[in-house]
């Protein structure tokens, strides 16, 4: 039996396209008010999963429940309860911001007060009489986000909403999303910006090849794969030795090696303790370093440690 706070339930869902299994017997629950990031490379199955949650696609097998209802018999009810914010939304160029809000507000019989609330939330009050084609990319995306929440959705799907925006415009969107989270809106975000998931989301779900590899808070995920810091190095082309046997065994260190480009990554607890011992071991073994880089572990490092490839690959 589902918890009363569960707003999205996915049970053993599979979706295939000819010979490709896009989503493979996947199960997932999302609770009321959660802000969840769905991460994975192209082809991981994220888009197919989201489209099934949005009622655009139907699963081949398994069950999807949104707010306790299925899409099959409750489409009209569910359309009024969700919002969609996409990478790009087309508006009429010669309509003003206010006229655009009036148009979309008419679909939900939204009063003028709601239109003014949207203007304030999206920081577009001063652009009320501006034509859409005169807005910057960030302003248009804020308008699109405002339109997506016109009906006060209980669940908001965000499909890479800040793609192509400059850092300042991206943070403007983040502030709006943080305000929505305070209001209790449940949000599911797909993004290729690791910082975006780290800053906004309380739970991160990592997908690949149609399945969930792992999920949890950022600290929980980063704590699973060795230490919280990374030593990345490449060896000179002439070095033919496998470096793992020469690496110090300290703390929760974990090693990944790519023989094609002679690049290694060591996940360690403390770089300041590990690095001197590693350099000493390499010197004694006659291994020559070509590059050396140290940094805090990121979500991309986490995905690399899970699959052997980065999220952008």
From TrEMBL:
Single GO cellular component term: plasma membrane
Pfam families: ABC_tran (PF00005)
Coiled coil: none
Compartments where located: Cell membrane
Domain of life, per lineage: Bacteria
Molecular-function annotations in GO: ATP binding; ATP hydrolysis activity
Gene3D superfamilies: P-loop containing nucleotide triphosphate hydrolases (3.40.50.300)
Main localization of the protein described in the UniProt heading: membrane
Keywords, alphabetical: ATP-binding, Cell membrane, Membrane, Nodulation, Nucleotide-binding, Translocase, Transport
SUPFAM superfamilies: P-loop containing nucleoside triphosphate hydrolases
Name used for this protein in its record: ABC transporter ATP-binding protein
Organism, scientific name: Leptospira fluminis
Organismal lineage: Bacteria, Pseudomonadati, Spirochaetota, Spirochaetia, Leptospirales
């Amino acid at each position: 039996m589902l918890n009363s706070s569960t707003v999205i339930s996915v049970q053993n869902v599979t979706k295939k396209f000819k010979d490709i299994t896009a989503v493979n017997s996947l199960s997932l629950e999302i609770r009321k008010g959660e802000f969840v990031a769905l991460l994975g490379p192209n082809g991981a199955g994220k888009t197919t999963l989201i489209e099934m949650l949005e009622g655009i696609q139907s699963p081949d097998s398994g069950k999807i429940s949104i707010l306790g209802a299925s899409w099959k018999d409750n489409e009209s009810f569910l359309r009024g309860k969700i919002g969609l914010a996409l990478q790009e939304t087309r508006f009429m160029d010669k309509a003003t911001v206010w006229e655009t809000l009036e148009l979309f507000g008419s679909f939900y019989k939204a009063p003028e007060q709601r239109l003014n609330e949207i203007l304030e939330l999206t920081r577009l009050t001063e652009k009320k009489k501006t034509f859409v084609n005169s807005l910057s990319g960030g302003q248009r995306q804020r308008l699109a986000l405002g339109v997506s929440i016109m009906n006060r959705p209980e669940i908001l799907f965000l499909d890479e909403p800040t793609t192509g925006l400059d850092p300042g415009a991206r943070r403007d969107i983040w502030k709006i999303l943080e305000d929505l989270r305070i209001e209790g809106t449940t949000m599911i975000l797909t993004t290729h910006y690791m910082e975006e998931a780290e800053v906004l989301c309380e739970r991160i779900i990592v997908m690949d090849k149609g399945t969930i590899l792992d999920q949890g808070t950022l600290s929980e995920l980063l704590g699973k794969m060795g230490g919280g810091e990374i030593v990345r190095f490449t060896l000179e082309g002439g070095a033919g030795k496998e470096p793992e046997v020469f690496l110090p065994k300290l703390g929760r260190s974990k090693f990944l090696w790519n023989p094609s480009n002679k690049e290694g990554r060591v996940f360690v607890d403390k770089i300041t303790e590990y690095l001197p011992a590693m350099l000493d071991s390499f010197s004694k073994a006659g291994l020559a370093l070509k590059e050396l880089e140290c940094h805090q572990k990121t979500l991309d490092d986490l995905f690399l440690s899970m699959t052997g490839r980065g999220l952008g690959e």
